[in-house]
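step 4 of 6: structure.
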Amino acid sequence: MWKWLHPYANPEVTYHLTNKLLPWLSALAAIFLSIGLVWALLFAPADYQQGHSFRIFYIHVPAASLSMGIYFAMAIAAFSSLVWQLKLADASAAAMAPVGAVFTAIALITGAAWGKPMWGTWWIWDARLTSELILLFLYLGVIALHSAFEDKNLAGKAAGILTLVGVINIPIIKYSVEWWNTLHQGSTVSKLGKPAMSLDMLWPFILCFIGFSLLVGVIISLRFRNEILARNSIRPWVRTLVSQQSK
Amino acid sequence: MQFSNFSDFINMGGYGFYVWLSFGAAAVLLTLLTISSKAGHQKIIKQIALRKKREDKLRQARKNKQQQAEIQTADLKEVTR
């Protein structure tokens, strides 16, 4: 397996692979998102308690779970970068941070917009909401550290340590609805066994979720190739690429 | 189809403001992020090109200086001889 993985540790190979994958990823993301969102907005039934405000669910839940998923991926990348000094892992962690921050912001905004009609308040300092807000600050801290040092390796190390310390927040977010009394409802989709949801609602959700995940893949790839170029700017292959492209 | 006409769809059973706020905010943020990430590619390429230009200039200047110094020493030798 190591032999097979070896060429992907080469930034040049990975850069070109990312470039090749991007159009396919983008097309898939567009297809899944457009079908999923149209289904969610127009055809999915309204909730019997929450009415049409329930449609916020189709953005809120994918955004929230992706905000945690991206953080977890970023932590794995930061760990491999700190332990095995994989330069590309560091580049990918730097690429993920802003994407995670935006998805966290979306989860918070859509959550507030859903909370106002359902709970009667935009915001409440309960466990789930507060821990998700802390996640946003963790992302912002990681982004700030990545740009705080001229030396990208040093910046990656500092940001990586913050990322790893912040991992403690992920289970807190995940289990906050079970550990503490909170206004936030428990999970509907990922319940063990059968999801507590009708199939008419579940299908558009699955499509939206896959669509948003693919979009995350697209944006991270876009940023990843920028990071690769920035970190290898003195390499000959980047120099030839630049002189070809900037003509 | 859950809505009989377009204004029903916009109204969202009275929750229109909240639903469209959510979808709108998500759309705006994701579009901005995608555009800035895509634009970053050209930006970094331009930066590296600029750096390369500067380095080439420095290298050229160093070469010129060296040549000048060589000429001067050659002149000096000529004079002393």
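step 5 of 6: annotate
 - Chain A has one domain: 54-245.
 - Residues 11-43 of chain A form the longest helix (33 residues).
step 6 of 6: archive
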